[in-house]
Amino acid sequence: MNNFIYQNTTRIIFGEGQIKGIADAIPANAKVLVTYGGGSIKKNGVYDQVAAALAAHTWSEFGGIEPNPQYDTLMKAVARIREEGFDFLLAVGGGSVLDGTKFIAAAVPYTKGDPWNILANFESVSQALPIGCVLTLPATGSESNGGAVVSRGSDKLFFVSEPVRPKFAVLDPATTLSLSPRQVANGVVDAFVHTMEQYLTYPVNAKVQDRFAEGLLLTLIEEGPKALATPENLAVRANIMWTATLALNDLIGCGVPQDWTTHMIGHELTGHFGLDHGRTLSIVLPAVMRYRRTQKEGKLLQYAERVFGITEGTAEERIDKAIAVTIDFFRTMQVPVSLTDAGLDAAAIDKAVQSLAEHNRTGMGERGDITPEDCRAILKLAL
Ligand code: NZQ
Ligand code: ZN
């Protein structure tokens, strides 16, 4: 296993009815800005729970952060915070609200020009307003990591910085009961692919990371379809919620090579064509598995055996089977598994490849050897 430093400082407050815990988690004298999205929290009772918990705090709100949060919207919050002097941000919503809030938190004290530079130059910020969050959509892991993805027009870019890692995250699975089946599926697939990006590379004898990753994959394969079939089942939601957090909280990525090609291609598909994040991943991952089957052979065989119990046949046959059952799983989750499924054709490939080049995605993959032209070949396999 490779050397690593691991530190995750987010306090997790997990379980039904835990939103009230924010009262103690936020400093009593803080001036709090609650950020949220398009209004789902006002329909499912989450906003009311947050408001009740903040009864003794000074607070105001900023709504309207859209899915795939947009720079222009976020900069309005930045202007307001600079004017009114908020000193704690409470993000209430899914990954987009959390990511948008991370950008706001980093942009407020930013003094080196336009805060878009943070994304355009992949800068690491040293300062940010403190953030807490109430997560309502298990998917991204944003609730306890230092990453955020923000869009400006068709440019969908990310940054990673320790100061934006949330101080605490409330994970109440009951908040997820109001999700549409589409968002439930997107979330399960996102968590699945986060795990795969850190697992399906090449072996480095990282036994715990591998087995932990396999446990997360198995849980998602087991519980994902149940969340669609029995949407009222809170125990299923609880398992999915904790799995999604663990899939991208830095733990399984310790000391192992990582890929992230699927995500980089996926971000371009969302940037240009507005596809939901999770749906870009179910389209691209199987094609990456096929394109990189030689480089990933060891881990593909391990995945086949340990996650799907595939032990019969030649190595080639077992890899084919592993890719096929992965696609089956995505189909069970009712997400697209090809560009065609998502209504896209070959013209989409040119746009995505061009943007990958413009965004300097020249050395992707666990070996740093995947170029935008490789992505063209991958996307052709995804047609
Ligand atoms: O805006 P509201 O009204 O809240 O509605 C949202 C939104 O329309 C709705 N929703 C959320 N919780 C709900 C709910 N509806 C009913 N009941 C609830 N409990 O769901 C819709 C989608 O929300 P969004 O936050 O966009 O989804 P998700 O959590 O999947 O986040 C996706 C974003 O996160 C980024 C993606 O690229 C994308 O921009 N990612 C962030 C990562 C990170 N920070 O580490 C890693 C990921 O790979 C990903 O890239
Ligand atoms: Zn993702």
Overview features:
6-stranded parallel sheet, Rossmann fold, binds 5,6-dihydroxy-NADP, 383 residues, 2 domains, alpha/beta, two-stranded antiparallel sheet, Dehydroquinate synthase-like, alpha domain, binds zinc ion
Give the helices and strands, then pairings.
Blueprint: E1 11-14, H1 22-25, E2 31-36, H2 40-43, H3 46-53, E3 58-62, H4 71-84, E4 88-93, H5 95-107, H6 116-120, E5 131-135, E6 147-152, E7 155-160, E8 168-171, H7 181-199, H8 207-229, H9 234-247, H10 261-273, H11 277-291, H12 297-308, H13 315-332, H14 346-358, H15 372-381
The structure holds 5,6-dihydroxy-NADP and zinc ion.
The site of zinc ion has 5 residues, from helix 7.
Textual characterization of the structure:
Helix 4 (71-84) packs across helix 5. The chain starts with 10 loop residues before the first strand and ends with a helix. It has helices at residues 22-25, 40-43, 46-53, 71-84, 95-107, 116-120, 181-199, 207-229, 234-247, 261-273, 277-291, 297-308, 315-332, 346-358, 372-381; strands spanning 11-14, 31-36, 58-62, 88-93, 131-135, 147-152, 155-160, 168-171. It has 2 domains: 11-175, Rossmann fold (3-Layer(aba) Sandwich), CATH 3.40.50.1970; 182-381, Dehydroquinate synthase-like, alpha domain (Up-down Bundle), CATH 1.20.1090.10. The chain contains 15 helices and 8 strands. It is an alpha/beta fold and 383 residues long. The strands form 2 sheets. The chain has a 6-stranded parallel sheet, with helices on one face. The structure holds 5,6-dihydroxy-NADP and zinc ion (ZN).
